[in-house]
Write a structure and sequence with these properties.
The complex is a heterotrimer of chains A (about 290), B (about 350) and C (about 260). By secondary structure, chain A is an all-alpha fold. Chain A is built from twelve helices and two strands. Classes of the chains: A mainly alpha (about 290), B mainly alpha (about 350), C alpha/beta (about 260). At the A-B interface, helix 4, helix 10 and helix 12 of A face helix 5, helix 10 and helix 12 of B.
Chain lengths: ~290, ~350, ~260
Amino acid sequence: MARQIYEAIADGILVGGVYALMAVGLTLIFGVLDIINIAQGVLVILGAYLSYSLSTKMHIDLFVGLLITIPAMFVIGTAVHWLFIRRLRDRERVSMTLLVTYAVALIIEGILYAVYGPNYVELNASYVTSSVHLLGFYLPYIYIYGFILAVVLVVALYLLLYRSRFGRSVRATMQDETAARLVGIDVNRVSAITFGIGVAVTAVGGMVYGATSGGFNPNSGYDLISRLLAIVILGGLGSIGGALAASVFMLTLESLVDIWSPNWAIVVFYAALVLVLVIRPTGFLGRKAVRAQ
Amino acid sequence: MSVNSGLAARAGGLVAAAAAAIAFPYVFTNPVVTNYGVYAMIFVAVVSAWNIFSGYSGYISLGHAVFFGSGAYAAGIACRDWHIQGEEIFAMLPLAAATGAVIAVPFGLVALRVRRHTFIVITIAFFFIFQLMAYNFSFTGGSTGVAAPFLTWPAQTYNNPFYFMALATAAATIALSWLIRRSRFGLQLRAIRDDEDRARGLGVRPMRVKLSAFVLSAAITALAGGIWFYYLTQVQPPSGFDPLFDLTVVLMAFLGGFGSVAGPVLGALVIEPGQLWLTARYTNDYLAEILLGALFLVVVLFLPRGVIPTGSELITKLRTRGRPAVIPATAIARQETDAPAGSGASSGGLK
Amino acid sequence: MTALLAATGVSKAYGGVQALAGATIEVEEGSIAGLIGPNGSGKTTLFNVITGYERADSGHVSFAGKPITNKGPDKVFGAGIGRTFQLTRIFARLTVLENMLVAAQHKRGNQRRRALELLEFVGIEGHAGLLAGSLSYGQRKLLELAYVLVADPAMILLDEPAGGVNPTLVNHIAERIREQNAQGKTFLIVEHNMEFVMGLCSIVSVLESGTCVASGPPDIIRTDKRVLDAYLGADLDEDESQDENAGASTVTTDVKDGDDDHASE
């Protein structure tokens, strides 16, 4: 039993790292644009399918394929922003964009069904099925690689945000959009690029998810977005550190509950979501309060 | 145009519409056509009920499928476990409505404490929780769901009683919606929509008002779910708790005019038959999903106030081209159509 | 000498900023009291704390002898205090009349007649059927005044009722306030428009950096050294502060513009 628990914790941490990447994208988007991007879940699945096509049709390695899927998802993200989100400027922006991104999610899901069909597929590679024997546990290589990649990318994002001029513009816009405009920041451009980045990270998340989930189909987006929403709200909307901590925490928790009851494991996310929103609407680590309508 | 002739025209229009609705299944006797009627009326009721809460208060709920499905399951489980047959099954409809209301109380107490956009997220979470429960609890029948007892009615007119049940529900909901809008309660709801804190500062009790509307909306939606269940004779987790349900409802509400009485009705009457027709012609519902999403985007981005209000605004614009614009909202007793400078009679210098 | 409203030792901080530091103010029943002070002195914060829109860190507020400290806005409203806002807060998508009815909704019976009467009182009854969002700025100010009256509160807090409004309208508003006061209503008014305050209020309190530095009749206040210090900064010529004629009034008029013109008229 103890062994199972340790394994669950190890798994949870590793997978948590990957979810962190997707969650960071989501929270970044909210922080800068005030948008809750419900489509993030299905975009991860889209990323997974792109990796799938590259891997099965063109025999490109999963990690190498990221060099294609990351820019592709970035383009898709900026396109979605430019087409649908840019127009929403009135005071009910947050609610409206939620509905808009929900609609976009449905469209993408429908397209995925049309192109790939409803059958479950998986991403395969040598390192998916083989593991390393460490400290008495078997840790699948894919988890480790994915975790490392996640860490690298989060660090890169951090550097971008805190050490670059663009990052400064992003943080300024996060704090006060009007003030940012007044000092000459092109808020539209910043928003578009941020949205693009927030979506681009789903390419990585998608690939690792596709390799470790044990099978996915277009419908899997719902499970994902539920988890991501819970994570970012728990960690505090707009807080990157919070998203990171919450990802690892929640995934580990789910992993533990899964030992006892696989069917209900996902409930920890819903329960956490509801609890947090009732007790402490700003999340436990969020520096930024949930903005008033 | 005097107030009286306007009222007479509206009353006349209402009577004509009611007559048409009642005559519908006798004119179009083909069950294929009346089937459209049943679904359309069910959704008119559902969307009007949704509007009573979300349209008036401005809190957009994406979780009403919780009530629809719960009403369906409540009706089904009651018939199954209490061995109810024949026409007695309809006696379970009030139970369905009550189930919706009861669920809405804790749901509302939790969800209505937060800001609008967080509220939406909570309703989504509750939706998934209920769908998950439907799949995993034994008393809900798991993936198989629950089936309704068969009714031995003649096939030719089988749809008609359902149609009239749904029509009655829809009519009652519309009447209720209209009454609420004119009432003190409705005023409080709409004030909450515009500026909740300010409303509180003027003595409105937001939680009480919001929760009342929420529970009422839930009860009606659950009732509609019960009717739907008996008509379809079955319910399973993905159909009772359908992720597309709420977005469809929202689309209908927006299309017809968010927050009005007639808007949801028109939205439902336009979209529901369209949706049915599409799914009948194209057997995969992926297309329906894409179209729904696309239509939704079009409406929200380009017609945010709905087709009806935007349409009537356009007409007003065309008609008053060249004349100074005075925008009347409703016909109320003392409406002086002054020059745009406003009445300066009793005081000086009003801007 | 009965204080209808008494706020004692109220403190409130936002993060590192101490908005109120032991502010104390008392308003007599039946009076029109003024509250002035430079920008950032905490006037609106004090209003917010009194009316329950914000919580005080410490201090007490009592109304008609009963404590109302940190009660929510609906309770304060129920106790008999109405208030308006600096940036007008109206229900834009409701009609003007409906705005009035919301404020009157806790009263029994049909309030329409009363609502229309009050609209007439302030002078915008012609707009009763229009959406409040279509009103001009000045008209919104009047609407706010009207609907704060419709609930018949014993005391009314006005936050910059003359702000951004043309002079004729300002007089109109001042007249309305006097009329309501004659019927027994107590007022506490925050304003930057010195003419307005000095002409209307029987007693004026001065808030600076979160504390009340002076309180008294307008004539005394306008020449009080502490008040001048508060608005203009500490180093001020002794002679000018002793000046009791109309010249001094220019010094304290409309300091909001950063005007330090000391010349007499």
